[in-house]
């Protein structure tokens, strides 16, 4: 039996809202999973399924992508990259059981094998993450590999590590022996601060890609041609039908906001349904952050609250990118 996860103690960090993040943290991303596509038709098959341009994706890069239903509603958001002899697709484990059969639905007509892997997925984060990867993996590409792992750059402070259960102990011990070992909550914090979209089971088939800012993180190609849901996505861009966007909000809370939770917004002296939580993080000093899909025409000083804690007011923070970027 593989015991890498018990040989190493991954424990939650009790961070306050004023604490600095660890210089180097190894994170057990057991709530993320990977699907692989192998076969000569894999590229063309994905090109007709995802919002990104798979054809132009080079072996040294990764990209965000959405997988939609025919109405343009997101089943999932993926990180796509070349992996071994095909493609790797990283997504939330919570959508795997419903999304994967849909991805496979038309594969019978193509020469591609679609498989949910048993890969171990880890995250390396912090100010020393880039130097650590550079020391152990040659080259300067955003996707690299050696005999034990494939690594994929997320941003200047984070890398994903994909390995096997047999190799995981060696990867952790060799790559970052002095790193803080922690749980997925720290990765959630990084994702919120970077406003990186995701879809969990609680938000599956709720939003079109632009409602979670997928276009702002280069996850949509408007030039690639047809794919499932493309008509809705294009109409949202060229006819302006999308009325929502994803924002970072902050406030006092005694618990962590969960995907699918509803946030109310102030309208004069009244409160109305405002938005839906995508991801949340709770600090140990009872402050919290969340990614929330909200109307995209709100005033800058709009206030928000959760119905379960009506006295705690929340507010928007600045996004790290231009939500209207092409």
From TrEMBL:
Pfam families: YgfZ_barrel (PF21130)
Source species, domain of life: Bacteria
Family, similarity comment: Belongs to the tRNA-modifying YgfZ family.
Gene3D superfamilies cross-referenced by the UniProt entry: 2.40.30.160, 3.30.70.1630, Aminomethyltransferase beta-barrel domains (3.30.70.1400)
A cellular component term, taken from the record's GO annotations: cytoplasm
Stored InterPro entries: GcvT/YgfZ_C, tRNA-modifying_YgfZ, YgfZ/GCV_T_CS, YgfZ/GcvT, YgfZ_barrel
Protein name per its UniProtKB record: tRNA-modifying protein YgfZ
GO BP: any one term: tRNA processing
Free-text function comment from the UniProt entry: Folate-binding protein involved in regulating the level of ATP-DnaA and in the modification of some tRNAs. It is probably a key factor in regulatory networks that act via tRNA modification, such as initiation of chromosomal replication.
Span of domain tRNA-modifying protein YgfZ-like beta-barrel: 242-307
UniProt KW keywords: Cytoplasm, Folate-binding, tRNA processing
């Amino acid at each position: 039996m593989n015991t890498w996860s018990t040989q190493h103690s991954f424990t939650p960090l009790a961070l306050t809202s004023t604490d600095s993040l660890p210089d180097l943290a190894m994170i057990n991303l057991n709530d993320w999973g990977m699907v692989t596509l192998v076969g000569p038709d894999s590229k063309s098959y994905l090109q007709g399924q995802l919002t990104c341009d798979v054809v132009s994706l080079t072996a040294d890069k990764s990209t965000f992508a959405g997988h939609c239903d025919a109405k343009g509603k997101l089943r999932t958001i993926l990180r796509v990259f070349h992996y071994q002899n095909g493609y790797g697709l990283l997504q939330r484990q919570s959508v795997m059981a419903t999304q994967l059969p849909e991805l496979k639905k038309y594969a019978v007509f193509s020469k591609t094998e679609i498989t949910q892997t048993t890969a171990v997925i880890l995250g390396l984060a912090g100010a020393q993450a880039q130097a650590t990867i550079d020391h152990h993996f040659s080259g300067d590409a955003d996707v690299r590999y050696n005999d034990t792992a494939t690594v994929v750059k997320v941003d200047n402070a984070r890398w994903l590590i994909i390995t096997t259960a047999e190799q995981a102990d060696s990867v952790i011990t060799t790559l970052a022996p002095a790193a803080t070992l922690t749980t997925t909550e720290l990765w959630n914090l990084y994702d919120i601060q970077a406003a990186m979209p995701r879809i969990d089971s609680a938000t599956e088939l709720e939003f079109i890609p632009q409602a979670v800012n997928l276009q702002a993180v280069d996850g949509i190609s408007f030039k690639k041609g047809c794919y499932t849901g493309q008509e809705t996505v294009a109409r949202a861009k060229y006819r302006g039908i999308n009325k929502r966007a994803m924002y970072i909000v902050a406030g006092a809370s005694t618990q962590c906001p969960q995907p699918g939770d509803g946030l109310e917004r102030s309208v004069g002296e009244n409160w109305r349904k405002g938005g839906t939580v995508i991801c949340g993080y709770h600090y140990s000093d009872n402050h919290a952050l969340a990614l929330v899909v909200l109307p995209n025409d709100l005033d800058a000083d709009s206030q928000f609250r959760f119905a379960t804690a009506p006295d705690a007011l929340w507010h928007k923070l600045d996004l790290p990118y231009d939500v209207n970027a092409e």
